[in-house]
Here is the input.
Amino acid sequence: MTDLFEPATFRTALRTWLDENDLTPPDDHSLQGHMQQFARVQRALYDGGWSRYGWPEEAGGLGGPAMLRAIVGEEVVGRRLAEPGPYSMLEVLTPTMIDYAQPELAAEMVPKLLSGEEQWCQGFSEPGSGSDLASLSTRAVQRGDTWVINGQKVWTSFAQFSHRCVLLTRTGDADTPDHQAITAFFVDVDTPGISVRPLRTMHDVDEFCEVYFDDVEVDSSRMLGKPGDGWQLAMDLLPYERSTCFWQRIAYLYSRFDGLVDEVRGRGQAIDVDMGEVYLALHTLRCRSRATQHRLAEGQKLGADTSIDKVLLAGAEQRLYDTVRDLLPGVIELDDTEWRTEYLYSRAATIYGGTAEIQRNIIARRLLDLGKE
Ligand SMILES: Cc1cc2nc3c(=O)[nH]c(=O)nc-3n(C[C@H](O)[C@H](O)[C@H](O)COP(=O)(O)OP(=O)(O)OC[C@H]3O[C@@H](n4cnc5c(N)ncnc54)[C@H](O)[C@@H]3O)c2cc1C
Here is the structure.
């Protein structure tokens, strides 16, 4: 019997399955279209078992190492069957949700996400709290078995399509130190008092939202961890955002690099040194990320070291699209092309999931021990 938990065997079997099951996206490049296609792909992967590998059995998965999930992401996103943005929410939110939720809650909810029945969002950032997340002010006050939440989140990706939100709130009193006063909840987005307002980005997509909480009542069984565990939850979540999640984005960037090579060749232009540099940046990133996937697979706890992955990803992504701009004159400035949308989105790579400046500070202080200034 073949061992499907062995990554090479798993990849071969998955590729065969993907070749035999046509999940080609329809010609609909709207965000709505991408979300529908993502749900369709997840449904098919779930029914075939693929999206359940690498997730714990207690949460509806089929077990096996996290690397299996990374392989599914690489194949699905690398083939452009699903877009990397919506796909990323699986990897960003689910591992930590499983670690902190009451087991019954994880067992009930995780299959809904893995099967494409639901989409979830991440309610961390606020108008005054991004890099300085510990200063967040959305407040949760206990009233018996219920917590009442008031405040506002911003930049909440895909909130308008989401059924649940992993939400950070402030609890405790004025004397509680910031990092011990943050508590996370798993909130139903259709709870009375929640309003979601999409925001248009510069690449002309309503990807982000403002989310308002007005006396929103959440049962204490929806708390993730204990009161005050929210900061640790956020710190545990970020390394996932930069490990299995990055692997699929890297696959996507490689597929776009191939697209650039085709287009440059199609115009009769030579493959030049700039493209060599892009390839090198992508390859460096992939090597680094591969080591990160292996550390995760060995059960190591990832932390500040993943800031290196983030810096490399942002650099490679922006270099790729800068090269598109230089080698395909006008496609970004003048034409309404996929390249234009992607170029504009790539500017966000040094912002989302922790800005480039903050990552460099972390590398300097925590990895290189260079001190505060
Ligand atoms: C595409 C995208 C998707 C996102 N999705 C989500 C989401 O789903 N959920 C969510 O909660 N958030 C999301 N965000 C928000 C993201 O987490 C924040 O934008 C990020 O944390 C930065 O916070 P900020 O925008 O408030 O910028 P600020 O923190 O105000 O930073 C502004 C500038 O100041 C610099 N800076 C700040 N502090 C320091 C410092 N101490 N030292 C040096 N430089 C500093 C920063 O590097 C940056 O250049 C998303 C953002 C983007 C771009």
Remarks:
- Residues 122-228 form a domain with the Butyryl-CoA Dehydrogenase, subunit A; domain 2 fold (CATH 2.40.110.10).
- The two ends are 58 Å apart (CA to CA).
- The beta strands are 120-123, 139-143, 146-153, 164-170, 182-188, 194-199, 208-219, 223-224.
- The pocket of flavin-adenine dinucleotide is lined by residues 121-125, 130-131, 155-157, 348, 351-352, 355, 357-358, 361 (CB under 6 Å).
